Amino acid sequence: MNLLLNNLSYLLIAAAVGQIMIAAINLRLDRLLHWDNELNNVSRLLREVFFVHKWFITIILVIFGALTIRFAVDMATGGYEMARWLAAGIGLFWGIRTLIQWTYYSTDHWKGNPARTAIHWILTFCYGGCATVYLVAAFR
């Protein structure tokens, strides 16, 4: 635990960079996963909602990343109550996302496919890692 606390600022910055990378990938997710046909076959409203949500999730992740880079030391030291609340909110966001990875998505999407299984586990560790780092910063 001391190793985590001693390097918390650096871990927060790493999480911030990771979030910005996820944001960039998120903008291309429909193309990366070859969802063009599926999105063309849904109603216009559903397609529009998908794209709006895609952009807003991307914006949120960039904001999380930028705020963390700017205030990593404040989050890590707990010097300001607002920094702790921000860390708690971002940690809760990633904690819920980690739970969704296992409780909402069907295992049919990845079981039996080594590449998708690897991606599933990588995402679980990334999301869970972000949750852990931010929640440690919030509640240390």
Give an account of the 3D structure:
The protein has helices at 2-6, 8-27, 29-32, 36-40, 44-77, 81-103, 114-139. The protein is an all-alpha fold and 140 residues long. It has one domain. Helix 2 packs antiparallel against helix 5 (44-77). The chain is globular. It starts with a helix and ends with a helix.
List the main descriptive attributes of the protein structure presented here.
single chain, mainly alpha, 140 residues, 0% strand
At a glance:
The chain is mostly helical. Helices cover 84% and strands 0% of the residues. It has one domain (2-139).
Mean pLDDT score, rounded?
93
**Total of domains:** 1
How many distinct helices?
A: 7
The number of strands is 0
Span between N and C termini?
10 Å
What kind of sheet is the major sheet? Answer: none
- Percent range for helical residues? over 70%
The helix-and-strand class reads mainly alpha
Radius of gyration: 17 Å
State the low-pLDDT regions, or none: none
| Helix and strand run | HHHHHHH
* DSSP strand content: under 5%
Shape: globular
List the SSEs and their pairings:
Elements: H1 2-6, H2 8-27, H3 29-32, H4 36-40, H5 44-77, H6 81-103, H7 114-139
Helix pairs in contact: 2-5, 2-7, 5-6, 6-7
